[in-house]
Amino acid sequence: MSSKSVFTRMSEALFGKKEETIIEEKGKKIMKIGIISGSVREGRNSEAVTQWIYDFAVNRNDEGVEYEIVELADYDLPLLGAKLPEERQAAAGAAIQAWSEKMASFDGYVFITPEYNHAVGGALKNATDFLKPEVANKAAALVGYGSLGGARAHENMRSILGELSVATVHTTTNFSLIADFENMSAFKPNDYNKVNAQGMFDDLLLWSQAFSTIR
To answer: pTM for the whole thing?
Structure first.
């Protein structure tokens, strides 16, 4: 009897079997890390924060690691469970499938999580509700920004990801709207954020490699 869960077998029947995400390149395994920009708001600060995190990650020169930015705003996901007019159903289905495949392609994640009303933004929560087998048994790191650096959104996000069988590393990177943004709008991070970012990526790569052995 297969050791796979019913959910996994159903997913493979619907969408096909997920390929291994750590790929071989000239005899070496490449670990793929997705940096998810989790806001869709027009004029969003997440673009600048995401770019800073991406540049920091790339400049670490981690051997055998590939980083990619994923803009949630590029995926026109419907509200989960909402009734759609017939003319929107095909496009919505394609967006859901594209989101599923993109998230399945990674071995680990960095979620950029702005804070709204002491919680993660609704668009990111909705996007995670479309996932389960794509992200299960993988690791994630959290980067936030807000009045308290997105700390409350991170606690919310840990609960969400835990339910999706994603392990979140302890160290986070938190950008303060007061200290790291000029006039609480232009992103100008202080250098001390690099200390947490360094530890965060160290943990994420270690855990992502470890979890790859059980998928």
So the answer is: 0.85
